[in-house]
């Protein structure tokens, strides 16, 4: 279909007045269509919204890929539309544990996708660093609020991460290449850089 044909289909089938030049700009990636335009475009092209998008990253992209309107998603996860829309626009998720679990379920998100889409990467990394270098038990609750993951599973993962870290530090000290404080020295810094990836592996949230 030529851009003119697509523009005609959008107007005839969905009442959207879009110029052929705009369709061409979408194709070149110069501008992005709105959620409504993506849904209509998928209808015109006989495909799903997800097929028109690259790998979804943001909340909006995951929602559009699932063909959901913002108000529909908000209702299904127990939020007011305005509150959800603000979180989507800012890229900062502030829902509670139940709403987080519902969001991940409705959008079909893995743990890694959930953290990326909700803008929690830095917060997660900081909590994990603290958990493995101190008392991991103190970080079960804050991490539980951050991630839609069962408490018993999270406890098991943190326990293993903490044990891995302590074993690495003991080995480093026994070789004489480390320093007295856990997490210091090049070996400690290198291992801390691996924590988030190791967490995804243990939690089953990679991919």
Quick overview:
The chain is mostly helical and 207 residues long. It is 66% helix and 0% strand.
The assigned structural class equals mainly alpha
Largest sheet entry? none
Find the count of extended strands (DSSP E, 2+ residues). 0
Tell me the overall shape: elongated
Fraction in helix: 55-70%
**Average pLDDT number:** 84
Tell me the radius of gyration: 22 Å
Kindly describe this structure.
The protein has 207 residues and is mainly alpha-helical. The chain has 13 helices and no strands. It has helices at residues 3-14, 20-28, 35-44, 59-65, 70-77, 81-90, 97-107, 111-117, 121-133, 140-146, 151-174, 185-193, 195-203. The model is unreliable at 176-183 (pLDDT under 50).
Which labels suit this protein?
207 residues, single chain, 13 helices
């Amino acid at each position: 279909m030529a851009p003119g044909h697509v523009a005609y289909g959008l107007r005839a089938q969905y009442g959207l007045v879009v110029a052929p030049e705009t369709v061409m700009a979408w194709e070149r990636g110069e501008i992005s269509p709105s959620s409504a335009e993506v849904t209509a475009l998928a209808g015109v092209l006989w495909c799903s919204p997800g097929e028109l998008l690259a790998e979804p990253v943001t909340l909006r992209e995951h929602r559009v890929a699932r063909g959901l309107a913002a108000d529909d998603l908000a209702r299904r996860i127990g939020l007011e539309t305005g509150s959800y829309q603000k979180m989507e626009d800012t890229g900062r998720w502030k829902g509670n544990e139940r709403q987080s679990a519902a969001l991940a379920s409705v959008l079909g998100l893995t743990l890694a996708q959930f953290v990326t889409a909700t803008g929690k990467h830095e917060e997660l990394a900081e909590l994990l660093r603290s958990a493995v270098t101190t008392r991991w038990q103190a970080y079960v609750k804050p991490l539980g609020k951050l991630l839609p993951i069962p408490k018993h599973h999270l406890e098991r993962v943190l326990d293993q991460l903490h044990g891995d870290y302590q074993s690495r530090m003991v080995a480093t000290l026994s070789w004489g290449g480390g320093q007295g404080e856990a997490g210091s020295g090049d070996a400690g810094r290198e291992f801390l850089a691996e924590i988030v990836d190791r967490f995804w592996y243990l939690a089953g949230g990679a991919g």
